[in-house]
Amino acid sequence: MRVYLPSTLGGLARILRDREVGPVPLTAYAVTPALREWYASADLEELEYAAMSDAAKASLRLLAADPGAPSRRVVIAAEVPDKAVTFAVGDLVDADERALVRVSEPIPFNRIASGHVDDAEAEPDVRAARGAIEAADAGDDDAKFTVDGAAGHDLMWYATQELRDLFP
Asked: pTM score, two decimals?
């Protein structure tokens, strides 16, 4: 199963150093039955984009918790065994967590498919969004608008061998 893991540049540096994503359990996003039901008209590519977008928003929460981190969202795409993934079903799924899953095994580096990182040009909008994410989560419409400003930036795609190039 393809999963999308929210991270930061510091988290990505640890992944590159340790050659795995961990410790478990890992919070990730994927194409779940709840996401398929909610977005029934979508094809797989659109569903994966929705899951990755949720992971990018979760990256903002990680950035908000780490004031010293560079203001660039990071999402790691990886292939994991289905048996390592669990998700809520039915009425247990919150509307904002349709793609949320838990991964119960560390992910070795060779299971990472790609990395997705904000371009430096997105930093001002991401900086504003990381400061507004808590208020947006609480329902503040102005804060949601600010968070949407960061979401308007597409994440840049990096092959695994290119990820080291993000660090001087």
From this structure: 0.93
